[in-house]
């Protein structure tokens, strides 16, 4: 696994964050060092998916990146369940396909390139996963995307989300961000790397408050909405139709 050094060049100007070749090559290291309890959240996504994914249906990973979630799910789900990975980045999809094949995935899977801002068409879904994805969808389109997914899920179908979130008020928001940057420092990110990545993500990653996410899910019709993970400014939510 290559070590994330994307933002360690002091002289390089910072543009908007993109899932390009440079990011894809170090993404697995980046996400583990940048997201608190990432591996535990992956384990929880697997447990929850196993309880809601139905035989002979499709499981969708929207924003599948390098395929980590799908690889974790493979040993836990019935082989009649097909995987569909969706990502806008062609580089991510190339890496995802290679990872799935290298890890001996034998079940049927399909990888689709699409911009989720424009919506998504689901075929026979029982579980839909957003793992650190919805936060990159422009707010203008976010509720419509969730509403569309709700309408395409069957009764008892599940939507699983892992998101970065804002604190409910400015006091805790400042504290949670401080604790988050301390987490990154413990994982050997320098002040330059933290600052440059923050600047790169500023106009790209737009988090909601936890309550805003919960209210959005309920507003489109989900009957059950529950938080299954919370660490300062990161959360996991399950919604069931």
Helices and strands, with pairings:
Layout (H helix, E strand, L loop, with lengths): L20 H14 L3 H15 L5 E5 L5 H7 L7 E6 L2 H13 L6 E5 L11 E7 L7 H14 L5 E7 L5 H17 L4 H11 L8 H10 L4 E8 L2 E7 L1
Parallel strand pairs: 1-2, 1-4, 2-3, 4-5
Antiparallel strand pairs: 5-7, 6-7
Helix pairs in contact: 2-3
Describe what you observe in this structure.
It contains eight helices and seven strands; from the N terminus they run H-H-E-H-E-H-E-E-H-E-H-H-H-E-E. The chain is α/β, with parallel strands linked by helices. The protein has a domain at 38-165 and 206-240: Rossmann fold (3-Layer(aba) Sandwich), CATH 3.40.50. Strands 3-2-1-4-5-7-6 form a seven-stranded mixed sheet, with helices on both faces. Strand 1, helix 3 and strand 2 (82-87) form a beta-alpha-beta unit. Helix 2 (38-52) crosses helix 3. The chain is globular and about 50 Å long. The mean pLDDT is 95.
Question: What is the structure about, briefly put?
Answer:
The protein is built from 8 helices and 7 strands, in the order H-H-E-H-E-H-E-E-H-E-H-H-H-E-E.
């Amino acid at each position: 696994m290559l070590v994330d050094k994307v933002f360690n060049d002091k002289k390089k100007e910072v543009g908007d964050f993109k899932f390009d070749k440079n990011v894809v090559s170090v993404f697995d290291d980046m996400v583990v060092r940048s997201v608190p309890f990432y591996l535990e959240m992956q384990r929880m996504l697997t447990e929850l998916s196993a309880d809601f994914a139905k035989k002979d249906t499709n499981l969708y990973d929207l924003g599948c990146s390098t395929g980590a979630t799908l690889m974790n799910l493979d040993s836990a789900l019935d082989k009649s369940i097909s995987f569909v990975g969706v990502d806008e980045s062609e580089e991510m999809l190339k890496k995802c396909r290679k990872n799935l094949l290298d890890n001996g995935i034998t079940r049927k899977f399909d990888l689709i390139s699409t911009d989720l801002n424009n919506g998504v068409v689901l075929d026979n879904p029982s579980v839909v996963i957003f793992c650190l994805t919805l936060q990159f969808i422009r707010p203008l389109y976010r509720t419509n995307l969730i509403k569309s997914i709700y309408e395409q899920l069957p009764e008892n179908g599940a939507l699983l989300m892992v998101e970065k979130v804002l604190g409910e008020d400015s006091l805790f928001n400042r504290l949670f961000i401080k604790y988050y940057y301390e987490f990154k420092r413990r994982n050997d990110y320098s002040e330059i790397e933290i600052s440059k990545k923050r600047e790169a993500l500023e106009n790209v990653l737009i988090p909601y408050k936890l309550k805003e996410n919960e209210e959005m899910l309920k507003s489109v019709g989900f009957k059950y909405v529950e938080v299954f993970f919370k660490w300062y400014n990161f959360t996991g939510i399950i919604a069931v139709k």
